[in-house]
């Protein structure tokens, strides 16, 4: 179970990073980057659930638990908003969306890195 959880969290990092940095480097939000956002969110949610089962608790009131919950909420809001922007075909938002993406990605890295540094049982 631990290997699966680590693979899922690592998948979240890979998918979300590809989506965010692909969007940034291409200069605009595109459906393919949106697919990577959703894939990263799905992997992070599944990986977090698996880690919670291993730890015996879905949520812990500590730095990692709080920042992790906030990060998942931000990822969900980010992916939903990216979907809305693309559906509306708002060219100004499409061209500038990377600013929001980079901020959410940076916020997501906090619990990811705290999990790596302190480990699951910390």
Short description:
By secondary structure, the protein is an all-alpha fold. Helix content is 84%, strand content 0%.
Strand-and-helix sequence, N→C? HHHHH
Query: How many alpha or pi helices?
Result: 5
What is the total tally of β strands? 0
Morphology call: elongated
Derived structural class: mainly alpha
State the separation between the terminal residues, measured CA to CA: 18 Å
Radius of gyration: 15 Å
Quickly count the domains.
1
Describe the structure.
The chain has five helices and no strands. With 122 residues, it is an all-alpha fold. The chain has one domain (2-118). Helix 1 (2-26) runs antiparallel to helix 5 and helix 3 (63-88) packs antiparallel against helix 5 (98-118). The two termini are 18 Å apart. The mean pLDDT is 91.
């Amino acid at each position: 179970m631990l290997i699966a959880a680590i693979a899922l969290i690592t998948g979240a990092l890979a998918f979300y990073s590809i989506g965010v940095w692909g969007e940034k480097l291409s200069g605009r939000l595109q459906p393919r980057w949106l697919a990577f956002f959703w894939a990263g969110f799905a992997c992070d949610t599944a990986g977090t659930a698996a880690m919670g089962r291993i730890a015996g608790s879905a949520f812990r009131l500590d730095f990692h638990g709080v920042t992790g919950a906030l990060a998942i909420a931000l990822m969900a809001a980010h992916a939903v908003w990216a979907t809305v922007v693309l559906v509306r075909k708002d060219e100004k938002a499409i061209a500038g969306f990377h600013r929001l993406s980079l901020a959410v990605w940076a916020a997501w890295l906090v619990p990811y890195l705290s999990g790596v540094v302190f480990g699951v049982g910390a």
